[in-house]
Design a protein that fits this description.
531 residues; alpha/beta; UDP N-Acetylglucosamine Acyltransferase, domain 1; nine-stranded mixed β-sheet; 30% strand; binds zinc ion
Amino acid sequence: MEKTCRQCQQAFTITTSDQDFYTRMAVSTPTLCPNCRQQRRLAWRNERSLYPGTCQLCKKKTISLYSPDKPFTIYCQDCWQSDRWDPMSFGRDYKPGQSFFEQIRELQLVVPRMAITIRNCENSDYAPWAVDGKNLYLSTGGFQNENCLYGMFPTYSKDCIDFIMPYQCELCYEVIECSDCYHCLFTQRCASCRDCYFSYNLHGCHDCVGCVNLRNKQYCWFNEQLTEQEYKCRLEAIQWTSTAIADYRAQLAQFKLTQPHVASEQIQCEASTGDLMKSCNQTDYGFDVYDQEQTAYMFDVRETKDSRDIYTGGVQCELTYECHSILQTQNSMGLNVCWDGNYNLFYCDHCFTSHDLFGCIGLRKQKFCILNKQYSEADYQQLTRQIITTMQAAGEWGEFYPITLSPFAYNETVAQEYFPRSETTVKTNGWQWHVPDPADYKPAQGDLLVCRDCRKNYRLVASELKYYKQFGVPQPELCPQCRHLARMQLRNPRQLWPRTCMKCRTTVATTYQPDRPEMIYCTSCFQKEVY
Ligand SMILES: [Zn+2]
Ligand SMILES: [Zn+2]
Ligand SMILES: [Zn+2]
Ligand SMILES: [Zn+2]
Protein backbone atom coordinates (compact mmCIF):
# COMPACT_ATOMS: atom_id res chain seq x y z
CA MET A 1 0.00 0.00 0.00
CA GLU A 2 1.28 3.50 -0.88
CA LYS A 3 0.68 6.40 1.50
CA THR A 4 1.70 10.05 1.64
CA CYS A 5 3.52 11.26 4.73
CA ARG A 6 1.54 13.79 6.74
CA GLN A 7 4.72 15.71 7.58
CA CYS A 8 7.07 15.65 4.55
CA GLN A 9 4.47 14.79 1.87
CA GLN A 10 6.73 12.03 0.49
CA ALA A 11 5.19 8.78 -0.69
CA PHE A 12 6.02 5.70 1.39
CA THR A 13 5.18 2.03 1.14
CA ILE A 14 3.42 -0.11 3.69
CA THR A 15 4.43 -3.71 3.03
CA THR A 16 2.19 -6.69 3.66
CA SER A 17 4.30 -7.67 6.66
CA ASP A 18 3.96 -4.09 8.01
CA GLN A 19 0.22 -4.45 7.51
CA ASP A 20 0.12 -7.78 9.39
CA PHE A 21 2.01 -6.19 12.26
CA TYR A 22 -0.33 -3.19 12.51
CA THR A 23 -3.31 -5.53 12.56
CA ARG A 24 -1.68 -7.53 15.34
CA MET A 25 -1.01 -4.38 17.37
CA ALA A 26 -4.57 -3.13 16.68
CA VAL A 27 -3.36 0.18 15.22
CA SER A 28 -4.08 1.86 11.90
CA THR A 29 -1.32 2.30 9.34
CA PRO A 30 1.15 5.09 10.21
CA THR A 31 0.52 8.61 8.98
CA LEU A 32 4.23 9.48 8.89
CA CYS A 33 6.89 7.95 6.62
CA PRO A 34 9.67 5.87 8.26
CA ASN A 35 12.09 8.85 8.30
CA CYS A 36 9.65 11.25 9.93
CA ARG A 37 8.73 8.55 12.46
CA GLN A 38 12.44 8.09 13.21
CA GLN A 39 12.91 11.83 13.59
CA ARG A 40 9.96 12.04 16.00
CA ARG A 41 11.44 9.38 18.31
CA LEU A 42 14.96 10.86 18.13
CA ALA A 43 13.57 14.23 19.24
CA TRP A 44 12.98 12.53 22.62
CA ARG A 45 16.60 11.46 22.94
CA ASN A 46 19.16 13.80 24.46
CA GLU A 47 22.59 12.17 24.41
CA ARG A 48 25.01 15.04 24.39
CA SER A 49 23.53 18.23 25.86
CA LEU A 50 24.54 18.19 29.51
CA TYR A 51 24.06 20.88 32.13
CA PRO A 52 25.04 21.44 35.74
CA GLY A 53 21.96 20.92 37.92
CA THR A 54 20.80 20.45 41.49
CA CYS A 55 18.69 17.56 42.74
CA GLN A 56 15.53 19.11 44.10
CA LEU A 57 15.15 16.38 46.72
CA CYS A 58 18.62 16.01 48.31
CA LYS A 59 19.92 19.37 47.00
CA LYS A 60 23.17 17.80 45.79
CA LYS A 61 24.80 18.89 42.55
CA THR A 62 24.19 16.59 39.61
CA ILE A 63 24.87 16.57 35.89
CA SER A 64 21.55 16.90 34.11
CA LEU A 65 20.10 16.31 30.65
CA TYR A 66 17.72 19.18 31.38
CA SER A 67 18.84 22.79 30.95
CA PRO A 68 17.99 24.99 33.96
CA ASP A 69 15.19 26.75 32.05
CA LYS A 70 13.19 23.52 31.61
CA PRO A 71 9.95 23.41 33.64
CA PHE A 72 10.63 20.03 35.27
CA THR A 73 11.45 18.93 38.81
CA ILE A 74 14.81 17.16 38.55
CA TYR A 75 15.98 14.46 40.96
CA CYS A 76 19.43 12.91 40.98
CA GLN A 77 19.49 9.27 40.02
CA ASP A 78 19.80 7.99 43.61
CA CYS A 79 16.87 10.07 44.84
CA TRP A 80 14.75 9.26 41.79
CA GLN A 81 15.19 5.54 42.37
CA SER A 82 14.60 5.79 46.13
CA ASP A 83 11.36 5.46 48.10
CA ARG A 84 11.70 9.03 49.36
CA TRP A 85 9.01 10.18 46.93
CA ASP A 86 5.84 8.63 45.55
CA PRO A 87 5.06 8.97 41.84
CA MET A 88 1.51 7.73 42.55
CA SER A 89 0.87 10.93 44.54
CA PHE A 90 0.67 12.72 41.17
CA GLY A 91 -2.13 10.42 39.96
CA ARG A 92 -5.13 12.05 38.37
CA ASP A 93 -8.46 11.21 36.75
CA TYR A 94 -8.74 10.72 33.03
CA LYS A 95 -10.61 13.62 31.42
CA PRO A 96 -12.76 12.22 28.59
CA GLY A 97 -13.14 15.52 26.74
CA GLN A 98 -9.41 16.29 26.45
CA SER A 99 -6.64 15.02 24.17
CA PHE A 100 -4.82 12.15 25.89
CA PHE A 101 -1.42 13.47 24.76
CA GLU A 102 -2.27 16.79 26.47
CA GLN A 103 -3.13 14.91 29.66
CA ILE A 104 0.22 13.11 29.50
CA ARG A 105 1.93 16.48 29.05
CA GLU A 106 0.22 17.83 32.19
CA LEU A 107 1.43 14.81 34.16
CA GLN A 108 4.93 15.16 32.66
CA LEU A 109 5.13 18.71 34.05
CA VAL A 110 4.67 17.58 37.67
CA VAL A 111 6.31 14.14 38.03
CA PRO A 112 10.03 14.52 38.90
CA ARG A 113 12.41 13.46 36.14
CA MET A 114 15.70 11.60 36.47
CA ALA A 115 18.49 14.14 35.91
CA ILE A 116 20.56 11.72 33.88
CA THR A 117 20.36 8.01 33.16
CA ILE A 118 23.59 6.19 34.02
CA ARG A 119 23.47 2.68 35.40
CA ASN A 120 26.01 0.99 37.62
CA CYS A 121 28.97 3.09 36.49
CA GLU A 122 32.03 4.24 38.38
CA ASN A 123 33.60 7.67 37.97
CA SER A 124 31.41 8.38 34.93
CA ASP A 125 29.20 11.37 35.74
CA TYR A 126 29.25 12.66 32.15
CA ALA A 127 28.25 9.41 30.45
CA PRO A 128 24.49 9.48 29.84
CA TRP A 129 22.88 6.12 29.01
CA ALA A 130 26.04 4.18 29.95
CA VAL A 131 25.67 0.83 31.71
CA ASP A 132 28.30 -1.01 33.81
CA GLY A 133 31.12 1.37 32.86
CA LYS A 134 34.20 2.73 34.54
CA ASN A 135 36.06 6.02 33.98
CA LEU A 136 33.91 7.18 31.07
CA TYR A 137 33.83 10.81 30.04
CA LEU A 138 31.48 12.36 27.48
CA SER A 139 30.83 8.87 26.19
CA THR A 140 27.18 8.11 25.49
CA GLY A 141 25.44 4.79 25.94
CA GLY A 142 27.11 1.42 25.66
CA PHE A 143 27.83 -1.46 27.91
CA GLN A 144 30.84 -2.59 29.98
CA ASN A 145 33.45 -0.07 28.88
CA GLU A 146 36.46 1.26 30.71
CA ASN A 147 38.52 4.43 30.21
CA CYS A 148 36.57 5.60 27.17
CA LEU A 149 36.34 9.30 26.36
CA TYR A 150 34.33 11.23 23.78
CA GLY A 151 32.03 9.16 21.64
CA MET A 152 28.92 7.10 21.40
CA PHE A 153 27.82 3.52 21.95
CA PRO A 154 31.04 1.73 22.82
CA THR A 155 30.68 -1.93 23.82
CA TYR A 156 33.19 -4.01 25.81
CA SER A 157 35.87 -1.46 24.91
CA LYS A 158 38.87 -0.09 26.77
CA ASP A 159 41.10 2.96 26.44
CA CYS A 160 39.36 4.41 23.39
CA ILE A 161 39.15 8.11 22.57
CA ASP A 162 36.87 9.75 20.00
CA PHE A 163 34.77 6.94 18.59
CA ILE A 164 31.44 5.79 17.26
CA MET A 165 30.36 2.26 18.11
CA PRO A 166 33.60 0.44 18.81
CA TYR A 167 32.94 -3.18 19.80
CA GLN A 168 35.59 -4.93 21.87
CA CYS A 169 38.21 -2.38 20.86
CA GLU A 170 41.24 -1.36 22.84
CA LEU A 171 43.59 1.58 22.62
CA CYS A 172 41.91 3.07 19.56
CA TYR A 173 41.53 6.67 18.47
CA GLU A 174 39.03 8.10 15.99
CA VAL A 175 37.47 4.75 15.12
CA ILE A 176 34.00 4.35 13.64
CA GLU A 177 32.01 1.09 13.51
CA CYS A 178 35.06 -1.08 14.24
CA SER A 179 35.18 -4.35 16.16
CA ASP A 180 37.93 -6.37 17.84
CA CYS A 181 40.58 -3.81 16.96
CA TYR A 182 43.72 -2.95 18.88
CA HIS A 183 45.69 0.26 18.50
CA CYS A 184 43.97 1.50 15.36
CA LEU A 185 43.74 5.20 14.51
CA PHE A 186 41.39 6.88 12.04
CA THR A 187 39.76 3.66 10.84
CA GLN A 188 36.20 2.80 9.90
CA ARG A 189 34.34 -0.50 9.50
CA CYS A 190 37.45 -2.52 10.36
CA ALA A 191 37.35 -5.85 12.19
CA SER A 192 40.04 -7.86 13.98
CA CYS A 193 42.85 -5.47 13.08
CA ARG A 194 45.79 -4.05 14.92
CA ASP A 195 48.11 -1.14 14.24
CA CYS A 196 46.14 0.04 11.22
CA TYR A 197 45.81 3.71 10.34
CA PHE A 198 43.64 5.79 7.98
CA SER A 199 41.91 2.67 6.68
CA TYR A 200 38.45 1.46 5.73
CA ASN A 201 36.84 -1.97 5.80
CA LEU A 202 39.87 -4.11 6.65
CA HIS A 203 39.43 -7.54 8.21
CA GLY A 204 42.18 -9.44 9.99
CA CYS A 205 44.91 -6.99 8.97
CA HIS A 206 47.79 -5.50 10.87
CA ASP A 207 50.30 -2.77 10.12
CA CYS A 208 48.51 -1.09 7.21
CA VAL A 209 48.16 2.57 6.25
CA GLY A 210 45.56 4.08 3.92
CA CYS A 211 44.09 0.72 2.92
CA VAL A 212 40.58 -0.23 1.79
CA ASN A 213 38.83 -3.63 1.59
CA LEU A 214 41.87 -5.78 2.43
CA ARG A 215 41.58 -9.20 4.09
CA ASN A 216 44.33 -10.71 6.25
CA LYS A 217 47.10 -8.47 4.95
CA GLN A 218 50.03 -6.76 6.56
CA TYR A 219 52.51 -4.02 5.62
CA CYS A 220 50.28 -2.48 2.96
CA TRP A 221 50.29 1.19 2.00
CA PHE A 222 47.19 2.36 0.14
CA ASN A 223 46.65 -1.30 -0.83
CA GLU A 224 50.18 -1.68 -2.16
CA GLN A 225 52.16 -4.53 -0.62
CA LEU A 226 55.44 -3.39 0.92
CA THR A 227 58.15 -5.32 2.70
CA GLU A 228 58.19 -5.00 6.45
CA GLN A 229 61.27 -2.81 6.18
CA GLU A 230 59.78 -0.45 3.58
CA TYR A 231 56.58 -0.19 5.58
CA LYS A 232 58.37 0.72 8.78
CA CYS A 233 60.44 3.40 7.04
CA ARG A 234 57.32 5.03 5.61
CA LEU A 235 55.43 4.80 8.89
CA GLU A 236 58.27 6.43 10.78
CA ALA A 237 58.25 9.29 8.28
CA ILE A 238 54.64 10.22 9.16
CA GLN A 239 54.71 13.49 11.06
CA TRP A 240 51.34 13.15 12.89
CA THR A 241 50.71 16.90 12.82
CA SER A 242 47.13 18.14 12.36
CA THR A 243 47.94 19.02 8.75
CA ALA A 244 49.53 15.65 7.99
CA ILE A 245 46.60 13.81 9.60
CA ALA A 246 44.07 15.85 7.60
CA ASP A 247 46.08 15.11 4.47
CA TYR A 248 46.09 11.32 5.04
CA ARG A 249 42.37 11.41 5.75
CA ALA A 250 41.74 13.30 2.51
CA GLN A 251 43.91 10.79 0.60
CA LEU A 252 41.92 7.92 2.10
CA ALA A 253 38.63 9.58 1.10
CA GLN A 254 39.89 9.85 -2.50
CA PHE A 255 41.26 6.30 -2.54
CA LYS A 256 37.97 4.89 -1.20
CA LEU A 257 36.21 6.18 -4.32
CA THR A 258 38.35 3.89 -6.48
CA GLN A 259 37.29 0.79 -4.50
CA PRO A 260 33.89 -0.95 -4.40
CA HIS A 261 31.53 -0.54 -1.43
CA VAL A 262 29.03 -3.16 -0.36
CA ALA A 263 25.46 -1.89 -0.71
CA SER A 264 24.42 -3.22 2.67
CA GLU A 265 26.65 -4.73 5.34
CA GLN A 266 25.02 -7.83 6.79
CA ILE A 267 26.45 -10.80 8.65
CA GLN A 268 24.41 -14.01 8.86
CA CYS A 269 21.19 -12.28 7.82
CA GLU A 270 18.25 -13.67 5.87
CA ALA A 271 15.81 -11.64 3.77
CA SER A 272 16.73 -8.35 5.43
CA THR A 273 17.43 -4.75 4.43
CA GLY A 274 19.41 -2.09 6.27
CA ASP A 275 23.05 -1.68 7.25
CA LEU A 276 25.45 -2.97 9.88
CA MET A 277 23.21 -5.90 10.74
CA LYS A 278 24.07 -9.22 12.32
CA SER A 279 21.96 -12.36 12.78
CA CYS A 280 18.73 -10.85 11.47
CA ASN A 281 15.87 -12.73 9.89
CA GLN A 282 13.21 -10.92 7.84
CA THR A 283 14.22 -7.54 9.20
CA ASP A 284 13.60 -4.46 7.10
CA TYR A 285 15.17 -1.09 7.53
CA GLY A 286 17.45 -2.20 10.39
CA PHE A 287 20.51 -0.14 11.32
CA ASP A 288 23.11 -1.26 13.85
CA VAL A 289 20.92 -4.15 14.92
CA TYR A 290 21.53 -7.76 15.80
CA ASP A 291 19.52 -10.86 16.70
CA GLN A 292 16.32 -9.64 15.07
CA GLU A 293 13.37 -11.77 14.02
CA GLN A 294 10.66 -10.20 11.84
CA THR A 295 11.29 -6.59 12.83
CA ALA A 296 11.41 -3.33 10.86
CA TYR A 297 12.51 0.29 11.27
CA MET A 298 14.89 -0.65 14.08
CA PHE A 299 17.90 1.41 15.18
CA ASP A 300 20.54 0.30 17.71
CA VAL A 301 18.45 -2.63 18.91
CA ARG A 302 19.38 -6.19 19.81
CA GLU A 303 17.48 -9.43 20.57
CA THR A 304 14.01 -8.39 19.48
CA LYS A 305 11.10 -10.19 17.80
CA ASP A 306 7.97 -9.04 15.97
CA SER A 307 8.54 -5.35 16.57
CA ARG A 308 8.72 -2.11 14.63
CA ASP A 309 9.95 1.44 15.06
CA ILE A 310 12.29 1.14 18.03
CA TYR A 311 15.30 3.34 18.82
CA THR A 312 17.80 1.70 21.19
CA GLY A 313 17.52 -1.22 23.54
CA GLY A 314 15.96 -4.59 23.01
CA VAL A 315 16.86 -7.81 24.85
CA GLN A 316 13.84 -10.11 25.09
CA CYS A 317 11.58 -7.53 23.50
CA GLU A 318 8.58 -8.74 21.55
CA LEU A 319 5.53 -7.07 20.03
CA THR A 320 6.75 -3.55 20.67
CA TYR A 321 6.02 -0.53 18.51
CA GLU A 322 7.03 3.15 18.46
CA CYS A 323 9.37 3.22 21.47
CA HIS A 324 12.51 5.03 22.51
CA SER A 325 14.81 3.04 24.82
CA ILE A 326 13.20 -0.18 25.98
CA LEU A 327 14.66 -3.23 27.68
CA GLN A 328 12.91 -6.56 28.38
CA THR A 329 9.51 -5.29 27.32
CA GLN A 330 6.66 -7.09 25.58
CA ASN A 331 3.35 -6.15 24.01
CA SER A 332 3.81 -2.42 24.45
CA MET A 333 3.60 0.78 22.47
CA GLY A 334 4.47 4.47 22.78
CA LEU A 335 7.16 4.07 25.45
CA ASN A 336 9.95 6.43 26.46
CA VAL A 337 12.70 4.83 28.58
CA CYS A 338 10.92 1.77 30.02
CA TRP A 339 13.21 -1.01 31.21
CA ASP A 340 13.61 -4.17 33.27
CA GLY A 341 10.68 -6.42 32.54
CA ASN A 342 7.46 -4.75 31.39
CA TYR A 343 4.40 -5.92 29.51
CA ASN A 344 1.17 -4.28 28.36
CA LEU A 345 2.51 -0.74 28.73
CA PHE A 346 0.97 1.97 26.56
CA TYR A 347 2.15 5.57 26.36
CA CYS A 348 4.38 5.40 29.42
CA ASP A 349 7.51 7.37 30.26
CA HIS A 350 10.27 6.12 32.60
CA CYS A 351 8.33 3.11 33.93
CA PHE A 352 10.20 0.05 35.16
CA THR A 353 9.30 -3.57 35.99
CA SER A 354 5.58 -2.98 35.56
CA HIS A 355 2.63 -4.30 33.60
CA ASP A 356 -0.72 -2.96 32.43
CA LEU A 357 0.02 0.75 32.68
CA PHE A 358 -1.52 3.42 30.48
CA GLY A 359 -0.25 7.01 30.26
CA CYS A 360 1.95 6.67 33.36
CA ILE A 361 5.20 8.43 34.25
CA GLY A 362 7.92 7.38 36.68
CA LEU A 363 6.30 4.20 38.06
CA ARG A 364 8.20 1.18 39.35
CA LYS A 365 6.65 -2.24 40.05
CA GLN A 366 3.06 -1.11 39.45
CA LYS A 367 0.09 -2.52 37.58
CA PHE A 368 -3.36 -1.37 36.43
CA CYS A 369 -2.63 2.35 36.59
CA ILE A 370 -3.82 5.13 34.29
CA LEU A 371 -2.18 8.57 34.54
CA ASN A 372 -0.44 7.34 37.73
CA LYS A 373 -3.77 6.48 39.39
CA GLN A 374 -4.53 2.97 40.68
CA TYR A 375 -7.53 1.00 39.33
CA SER A 376 -8.91 -2.48 39.82
CA GLU A 377 -8.13 -4.82 36.93
CA ALA A 378 -11.73 -4.69 35.67
CA ASP A 379 -11.96 -0.89 35.87
CA TYR A 380 -8.55 -0.60 34.21
CA GLN A 381 -9.65 -2.76 31.26
CA GLN A 382 -12.89 -0.86 30.83
CA LEU A 383 -11.39 2.63 31.04
CA THR A 384 -8.44 1.85 28.76
CA ARG A 385 -10.88 0.59 26.11
CA GLN A 386 -12.67 3.92 26.35
CA ILE A 387 -9.40 5.91 26.13
CA ILE A 388 -8.23 3.91 23.11
CA THR A 389 -11.48 4.69 21.28
CA THR A 390 -11.05 8.40 22.00
CA MET A 391 -7.38 8.30 20.96
CA GLN A 392 -8.30 6.51 17.72
CA ALA A 393 -10.82 9.23 16.90
CA ALA A 394 -8.22 11.93 17.68
CA GLY A 395 -5.56 10.20 15.54
CA GLU A 396 -3.32 9.65 18.59
CA TRP A 397 -3.51 5.86 18.96
CA GLY A 398 -0.55 4.15 17.29
CA GLU A 399 1.46 7.38 16.97
CA PHE A 400 4.52 8.18 19.05
CA TYR A 401 4.26 11.35 21.18
CA PRO A 402 4.49 14.48 19.03
CA ILE A 403 7.79 16.39 19.03
CA THR A 404 5.98 19.32 20.67
CA LEU A 405 5.72 17.16 23.82
CA SER A 406 9.43 16.31 23.96
CA PRO A 407 11.07 17.29 27.25
CA PHE A 408 14.06 18.56 25.24
CA ALA A 409 14.67 21.26 22.67
CA TYR A 410 15.03 19.81 19.16
CA ASN A 411 18.67 20.90 18.85
CA GLU A 412 19.54 19.23 22.16
CA THR A 413 18.53 15.85 20.78
CA VAL A 414 19.87 13.23 18.41
CA ALA A 415 17.18 14.32 15.93
CA GLN A 416 19.33 17.36 15.11
CA GLU A 417 22.24 15.03 14.21
CA TYR A 418 20.29 12.79 11.84
CA PHE A 419 17.71 15.33 10.67
CA PRO A 420 19.32 18.78 11.09
CA ARG A 421 16.83 21.65 11.01
CA SER A 422 17.32 25.41 11.23
CA GLU A 423 16.13 27.44 14.19
CA THR A 424 13.42 28.97 11.97
CA THR A 425 12.09 25.60 10.81
CA VAL A 426 12.11 24.23 14.35
CA LYS A 427 10.22 27.21 15.71
CA THR A 428 7.76 27.25 12.80
CA ASN A 429 6.93 23.63 13.67
CA GLY A 430 6.24 24.65 17.26
CA TRP A 431 9.23 22.64 18.54
CA GLN A 432 11.60 23.97 21.20
CA TRP A 433 14.97 25.49 20.31
CA HIS A 434 17.81 25.78 22.81
CA VAL A 435 19.72 29.05 22.60
CA PRO A 436 23.43 28.51 23.42
CA ASP A 437 24.67 30.24 26.58
CA PRO A 438 26.96 33.19 25.64
CA ALA A 439 29.04 32.35 28.74
CA ASP A 440 30.29 29.27 26.84
CA TYR A 441 31.92 31.43 24.16
CA LYS A 442 34.65 33.33 26.00
CA PRO A 443 38.11 34.07 24.58
CA ALA A 444 40.75 31.41 25.24
CA GLN A 445 42.47 31.77 28.56
CA GLY A 446 44.70 29.36 30.48
CA ASP A 447 43.28 25.85 30.05
CA LEU A 448 40.06 27.23 28.55
CA LEU A 449 40.25 26.53 24.81
CA VAL A 450 38.17 27.84 21.91
CA CYS A 451 36.88 25.46 19.22
CA ARG A 452 38.32 26.24 15.80
CA ASP A 453 34.93 25.68 14.14
CA CYS A 454 32.10 26.74 16.45
CA ARG A 455 34.10 28.97 18.85
CA LYS A 456 32.62 27.20 21.89
CA ASN A 457 34.88 26.81 24.91
CA TYR A 458 36.16 23.41 25.91
CA ARG A 459 38.77 21.99 28.25
CA LEU A 460 40.95 18.94 28.02
CA VAL A 461 40.70 16.55 30.94
CA ALA A 462 43.81 15.13 32.55
CA SER A 463 43.07 11.55 31.49
CA GLU A 464 42.96 12.35 27.78
CA LEU A 465 46.36 14.02 27.62
CA LYS A 466 48.23 10.79 28.32
CA TYR A 467 46.43 9.12 25.40
CA TYR A 468 47.41 11.85 22.93
CA LYS A 469 50.98 11.36 24.06
CA GLN A 470 50.73 7.60 23.75
CA PHE A 471 49.12 7.80 20.28
CA GLY A 472 51.58 10.50 19.24
CA VAL A 473 48.78 12.74 17.98
CA PRO A 474 48.32 16.47 18.60
CA GLN A 475 45.69 17.78 21.01
CA PRO A 476 42.34 18.39 19.28
CA GLU A 477 41.56 21.85 17.94
CA LEU A 478 37.83 21.18 17.80
CA CYS A 479 35.41 20.90 20.71
CA PRO A 480 34.01 17.42 21.51
CA GLN A 481 30.70 18.18 19.76
CA CYS A 482 32.32 19.34 16.50
CA ARG A 483 34.56 16.24 16.56
CA HIS A 484 31.48 14.08 17.05
CA LEU A 485 29.62 15.77 14.18
CA ALA A 486 32.67 15.32 11.93
CA ARG A 487 32.58 11.58 12.66
CA MET A 488 28.83 11.47 12.04
CA GLN A 489 29.55 12.97 8.60
CA LEU A 490 31.65 9.91 7.77
CA ARG A 491 28.78 7.54 8.51
CA ASN A 492 26.11 6.59 6.03
CA PRO A 493 22.61 7.93 6.59
CA ARG A 494 20.06 5.64 8.19
CA GLN A 495 17.89 5.61 5.11
CA LEU A 496 17.65 3.26 2.16
CA TRP A 497 17.54 3.98 -1.54
CA PRO A 498 16.97 1.51 -4.36
CA ARG A 499 20.00 1.24 -6.66
CA THR A 500 21.55 -1.29 -8.99
CA CYS A 501 24.79 -3.17 -8.35
CA MET A 502 27.37 -1.47 -10.58
CA LYS A 503 28.79 -4.86 -11.55
CA CYS A 504 25.85 -7.24 -12.13
CA ARG A 505 22.93 -4.77 -12.25
CA THR A 506 20.76 -6.51 -9.65
CA THR A 507 18.61 -4.21 -7.53
CA VAL A 508 19.88 -3.44 -4.04
CA ALA A 509 18.61 -1.38 -1.10
CA THR A 510 21.47 0.80 0.07
CA THR A 511 22.40 3.66 2.37
CA TYR A 512 24.33 5.26 -0.50
CA GLN A 513 22.13 7.87 -2.16
CA PRO A 514 21.92 7.45 -5.94
CA ASP A 515 23.98 10.60 -6.60
CA ARG A 516 26.90 9.56 -4.39
CA PRO A 517 30.19 8.86 -6.16
CA GLU A 518 31.02 5.50 -4.50
CA MET A 519 31.03 2.27 -6.52
CA ILE A 520 28.19 0.20 -5.07
CA TYR A 521 28.24 -3.59 -5.39
CA CYS A 522 25.76 -6.21 -4.23
CA THR A 523 27.01 -8.58 -1.54
CA SER A 524 28.01 -11.40 -3.88
CA CYS A 525 29.86 -9.14 -6.35
CA PHE A 526 31.58 -7.38 -3.45
CA GLN A 527 32.71 -10.66 -1.93
CA LYS A 528 34.09 -11.92 -5.24
CA GLU A 529 36.09 -8.71 -5.50
CA VAL A 530 37.42 -8.61 -1.95
CA TYR A 531 38.02 -12.19 -0.85
ZN1 LIG B 1 7.83 12.01 6.12
ZN1 LIG C 1 19.19 13.67 45.09
ZN1 LIG D 1 33.00 23.19 18.19
ZN1 LIG E 1 26.27 -7.56 -8.12
